[in-house]
Design a protein that fits this description.
Layout lengths: L2 E5 L4 H17 L2 E8 L16 H29 L9 E7 L2 H12 L3 E5 L6 H5 L3 H8 L4 E4 L10 E5 L6 H13 L4 E8 L6 H17 L5 E7 L3 H11 L4 E6 L4 H5 L16 E5 L8
Parallel strand pairs: 1-2, 1-4, 2-3, 4-5, 6-7, 6-9, 7-8, 9-10
Antiparallel strand pairs: 5-10
Helix pairs in contact: 3-5
Length: 294
């Protein structure tokens, strides 16, 4: 059975993401592992790398977080039982409280469980970049070799009908599109390939790249419900904001390249230019992801 990892700090946003993850796990027939990372060194401690918390404090935190994880798991299980009368259809949950930085803890658990996905809550409100900027999500996404699905605060799960895949027409997106197609297949959902340019329609070299990319998709027949949409925007951020506001999309997929768009989201004024609040779950796929996740 495949597994979804759900990191939590017990905030409202994190707990909401856990509820979303249970519904998603049920649809994908996956298990859930809730996890909490106990940072042994307070982040704001001067010369923190040379300081270790007293063992008593860590042991106390371990007991408290283990109890909170158990309570959250019980709440999620109870809600699942109300929906699924047949025990065979219920999601299996477990919880882990581990010392260390969240980014490292998440990576270790993903490797241990051979997890398919990490689901976590976006921190705060505002634009797409502002939601993840400065948060644990940024650190996890930047280092992740696995898919990360970030859930906006108060987002309620609904059956996935349309997935928007933001593409810059890179050939590497073809393999990632197969991963997205597998996810879409669980819901018989549409996949909307969205390419953002400054022009009303692709022109010149961009038009040729678009035609070549769509031709490759047609020849490989990845999935029967893939559609293309050109989105006009002075920046990629503006185009994605338009999709967020008008695309009637259930999940927005972005490919994380080390020198690509997602990196720019975290730098300088780019985060301030995201005009609309992101209400769409954001699935980040690392470049070079294997095809076995969903």
């Amino acid at each position: 059975m495949k597994t979804i990892i759900v990191p939590t700090d017990f905030s409202v946003a994190a707990n909401n993401a856990a509820h979303y993850a249970v519904h998603l796990a049920k649809a994908l027939r996956m298990d859930i592992t809730l996890c909490h990372a106990i940072d042994k060194v307070p982040a704001d401690t001067p010369l923190a790398e040379h300081v270790v918390w007293p063992m008593e404090s860590y042991a106390s935190l371990k007991r408290e977080t283990t109890a909170e994880l158990k309570l959250l798991a019980e709440q999620l299980t109870h809600e699942d039982e109300l929906v699924s009368k047949n025990p065979a259809n219920r999601v299996r949950l477990e919880s882990l409280s581990i010392g260390g930085q969240l980014c490292e803890v998440a990576e270790d658990i993903v490797n241990q469980k051979k997890a398919s996905l990490v689901v976590m809550g976006m921190s705060g409100h505002g634009a797409i970049g502002q939601m993840v900027f400065g948060s644990n999500a940024r650190l996890i996404v930047d280092a992740a070799t696995y898919p990360v699905l970030m859930i906006p605060p108060q987002r309620v799960f609904r059956p996935i009908q349309k997935i928007a895949f933001a593409t810059d027409l890179d050939k590497g997106d073809m393999d990632l599109l197969q991963t997205v197609s597998t996810l879409a297949g669980h819901f018989n959902a549409e996949i909307l390939l969205a390419h953002v340019t400054r022009d009303e329609q692709p022109t010149g070299n961009d038009k040729r790249r678009t035609e070549d990319f769509l031709s490759m998709i047609s020849s490989k027949a990845l999935y029967p419900k893939i559609y293309y949409r050109h989105v006009k925007g002075h920046t990629v951020e503006q185009g994605l904001n338009w999709l967020n506001a008008h695309g009637d999309v259930d999940i927005l997929v972005i490919v994380h390249r080390k020198e690509g768009f997602f990196k720019r989201l975290f730098e300088g004024s780019h985060t301030q230019k995201m005009a609309h609040q992101c209400a769409i779950p954001l699935l980040v796929l690392p470049e070079g992801l294997s095809l076995t996740h969903f």
